[in-house]
């Protein structure tokens, strides 16, 4: 049995590794000239680590980048809005780990035969019979996996009438700041903007920033330094220490619900199927879940039945996570001073159990 994976990111390489371990011949088509990931840090949450356990990679990440759960959410003056019980979260859900996205790609790539990796290959069309037309010619397979991101050519080929990704109203910057002490993984909310930071295993600090903006807006490091100059420490210091060439800006999209993730011999996974806001930090973890679930579903050789089982298992869960992620982050992007004042007064009064229960749907998954 042969599988073609369109896209060599985290989801695509996880699918390639999972299928290879089950004896499939694989071919991974990646448009970029090399297999890597542009980005910064990544928190691999307990559900993502359990998915990677099926490939024998979970404990390696746990040992190399052990991390605490998110500490909570602050106001721009540093006062806590939500403060999590970290010991409880670890007992309840399991370990977290942090990794640079490129390092996770490298780890997954070691689980895939190098001969199967075809970089610099642009896919032009995917057909339901398993045919893939690309810049290197034509390939055919028993299974095609569309792991080619938000603007997926696989999805556009086979779901031409589906609504495309929707801009959610805010843009996102990511960067790595040089090593300096920070207090755990924390997010800070203002009015229509927020700043998060997370310590990395090597001492550097992964920072992510989101702000309401028209689609296509651009802003550099100087703009960010000015915007967050009066926020609590260590936010101004992190931005002051960062370098312009380490800043990545991307508009933020989510995918409207598809009626199915499968067509013929083709399955979508990750952002191609269910792009989501980064509010739960679940994008990569859901792609990893998709990949190992798909490989298990088609393991018996009946691809059609396996794809139906994959769709039944993954579509309800991932579309629920898309909705939950949208809801969790919505209050951070309110711009009304009255609404933000109510938010800032109300959140500290809510019991911790409310927030802990809201995390359970994301973290409780097991393969």
From TrEMBL:
It comes from the Bacteria. It comes from Nonomuraea dietziae. One of its GO terms (molecular function) is FAD binding. Keywords: Monooxygenase, Oxidoreductase. Residues 2-324 form the FAD-binding domain. It holds the Pfam family FAD_binding_3. This is 2-polyprenyl-6-methoxyphenol hydroxylase-like FAD-dependent oxidoreductase. Signal peptide: none annotated.
